[in-house]
Automatic annotation (TrEMBL):
Allantoate binds at residues 223, 282, 295. Binds 2 Zn(2+) ions per subunit. Belongs to the peptidase M20 family. It comes from Nakamurella alba. The keyword Metal-binding applies. NCBIfam families: hydantase (TIGR01879), PRK09290.1-4 (NF006770). This is Allantoate amidohydrolase. Zn(2+) 2 binds at residues 93, 128, 384.
Amino acid sequence: MRTPPVEPSRFASLWSDLAVIGRDRLRGGYSRHGFDDADLHLREWFTAQAQRRGLDVETDRNGNVWAWWGTPGAGAVVTGSHLDSVPGGGAFDGPLGVVSALLAVDELRVRGVRPTRPLAVACFTEEEGGRFGLACLGSRLMTGAVDADQVRRLHDGAGQTLAEAARRAGVDPAHMGPDPERVAMIGSFIELHVEQGRLLKSASPAGAPAAIGVGSEIVAHGRWRLSLTGEGNHAGTTVADDRHDPMIPAAATVLAARRAITARPGAVATVGRIQPVPGGTNVIASRVDVWLDARYLDGAATGELVDEIVAAVREEAALEGCALTVHRESMSDRVDFDPGLAMQLAEQLGAPIVPTGAGHDAGVLAAHVPSAMLFVRNPTGISHAPGEHAETADCITGVEALADALEVQLR
Ligand SMILES: [Zn+2]
């Protein structure tokens, strides 16, 4: 028998707790980054909410926070997401999955579910890579997908290393690294997330908009840093022929990225960050670092896309007398979520199956454990920006769908 719908006020209450944490007055939206003050505040909030529900909270060796219903052990059903954001990000990316997980636990209890296996709500460290530049940091460390020594040396914009930041947050950096026992405990992982596109407006098999969808795959995605070196000089006295201005090939990067994706339906490539050195209005830069984010089908296709962009930049750099070095900061190949689990959830929830171009902790875990994602409709498709939104009614539908999904997994 179906229980009454989840009260919107219960969602609103948790949501208003979060609304005041980590606001970015300069950019708008939220800036919450791994181990910073906002992140620590959010971790405290999560711990208090989990304890209020009688869940046992622990922080693992990589700073991921786990709240357990039942004794941690084999075959655990795990849900959750992340609490950090991109700089000036929206409210929903990450926290919606954590809030929904807590409310789903409440809902399972209202339904009288008695789990036959442990259930955990997990919050993964620095999913966005907004502070230290490496996305899905907590899940990658846990699964051994990234070298812990390399991670400890990562530093933020202010020069603080990840090791120092972790220590300040009470996480011993010396113990960071693969956690195979913990991964082995996970029987399945289901991450609920705000949709970061607009497929749910049209993806329903019946043609009607759908409040929630089930993830099929994450397309390949990576980040590259292009460092262009020229000759720093005076903006007022250096004539065109004498210039070796790295900003020229930097600009070419932006345009080449647009050309390359226009020729490939479904591909995306973005220059969202440029850093000129020294960065003065009346100075021709001596160096410009350009970060390129590219996402397309699989690893090979994404590689070709980036090669084409880099070739165009190299040509422009040569014409300007500048040098180019390319450093791949990260690359994640296409990830298919567990097809059996996705089919089962789609059938159980009557939800369409949709792909995504965004990376997620569920994508990292999918290589190790059956993983699935539930997406909640986002009316504008805007994400990683303050305009990110989901209607409360859709969020409630998401909580109920997550509770339905977990209930089946817990049997
Ligand atoms: Zn996210």
